[in-house]
Each structure stands twice: as C-alpha cells, then as structure tokens.
Amino acid sequence: MRKHWIARAALCLCALALLLPFAAAFAEFPAPRETVLESVPDFGGLNGRHVVIRYGERDALGRCTAATAVLGPELRQGEERADIADFRPTGLHNAAYGFIRDRWVYNRCHLIGRQLGGADELNNLFTGTHALNHSLMLPRENEIAAYIRKTGNHVFYRVTPLYDGDNLLCSAVLLEAESAEDAGAGLRFCVLLPNSEPGVAIDYATGYTTRADDWESGGTAAGSHAYVVNTRTGKFHAADCPDAGNISRRNRRERTGLRSDLIREGLTPCGKCRP
Predict the structure, then answer these.
(1) Which long-range contacts (CB under 8 A, 24 or more apart) does 215-219 make?
(2) Among 62, 130, 133, 185, which is 20 to 30 Å from 96 by CA?
(3) What secondary structure letter does DSSP report for 245?
(4) Which among 198, 207, 115 is positioned nearest to 161, based on CA atoms?
(5) Considering the chain, what is the average pLDDT of its residues?
(6) Which domains does the chain have, with CATH numbers?
C-alpha cells in the first residue's frame, strides 16, 4: 500500500511539473489540450467486479481532493439534477465573458461525471473552466460511458485535481482510467487536462480572472477586483457573495482593489466566499 501511494504522489508531482511554464500566479493558457502521459494507471486494492465511488475528504483549505471509482453498468445517472447553485467550491469567483459560449468562465465541475454515476455533493465538485468541463473532461467521460454500454464491463477511474502550493484553484486535473476485466486492453488512458480558458487570465491563488488582453495591455490589473466591505464586522466579501446582499446600506461599502491591500488595512475575508 505504501509503494502504491508513493507511486501516486510521484505521478502527481510529474504531472504538475508539466504545468510549471503556465503556473505563474497569473497565466493565460492557449486553447486547452490534453497531455497524454506514458504512466500506466495504478488501481491496486480495488476490486474490478464491484462498483464503488469514493470521494476524498476536502483538505485543510477546503479544496476538493481525488475521487476514485469502479464504474459499471450497475451505476445509473440520477433522474433529477440536484440544485448545486449554493455549493461554492474553492476558487469560484465567476465572471461572464462574451467570447465564451455559455458566457461564464467557471462551472461547478463533477470529479465523477453524473452520466458515470457521480453525485451532486460538495466533495464531488470543484471549480473548473468552461473549456475544461466541456472540451476536455466531457469527451473522456463519454468514452468511458460508451465502453461500458458496449461491453457491459467495468472501468477503474480516478480524477485528481492538482494544486500549486496553497492555490485555491487547481491548475489541472489528472484523469486515469483502465478497463477492469481485460486489464486495460479495451480502455486505458492517463491524461493531464489544464484548467484554463482561452482569452482569460486566471489568478490560481484566488480564482479571480480578467481578460487576457486587458492584462497584456496594462489595463485593469489581474487581482484587482470588486469587493463589498461590512464596516460593522470588518469583513470583506466577493461581490457575488450571498452574505454581501444581507449587509445594510449603513454598514455596506463597495471597494475595488487588491485583496492584499484590504488585508493590510485590517479587514478579514469572508469565510464562506473566500474572496
């Protein structure tokens, strides 16, 4: 078991190293593409004949961790999608851009997709870009679902969000899959998917974004954002934080600036929206 986790840790470190050219505090990725890794997925300890989904506990920063599963025809997508609008995975500071198909840069992404039996719960949700969710993760999930429908076999599957240090937004997601009954002959992949959006500069430390051309042209600095300050409690909130809407006009003050400046002034960030 110890050797298994050492190998897993090494794989995650190698995958994250591939992102170093892009993992500065503010980075604009090109049109996102997956990176195929040569590593063979290791699913030691899992029984390929019994379906199961295991969600990792959130870490000390509240960040989503890996989910591991044995998928099969026994698992079915729920008939009704739960309301996940109130779930706020770390780094979720959404912004709308006209050049994104659905406007919003972020989705509440499922580690284990709903079509594969994944649940609508916080430990299965992380903040991912529209491009990551729709252009990269969905095709791989469709590939797994099609294999299961065609063969009736089972698939080992693991999704691991990768963070650089204490960043609240993952830089990438590592997807590993292997068909169980035929030891990977029918389906096997190990791919690294960047959590990026074309045309958008992302602050992975917080999740805030700005247009890439604004950042490059010296316009509004990435990291400078709109906040709502509660002068009675001394807390500051993201502009879209539900608690910000409950602040009375008397105690409400709107600010635009750097998070670090507000903290230097003695203000404390809201524990719910984590601005």
Answers:
(1) 215/26, 215/28, 216/28
(2) 62
(3) G
(4) 207
(5) 83
(6) 2-203 (3.40.570.10), 223-269 (no CATH)
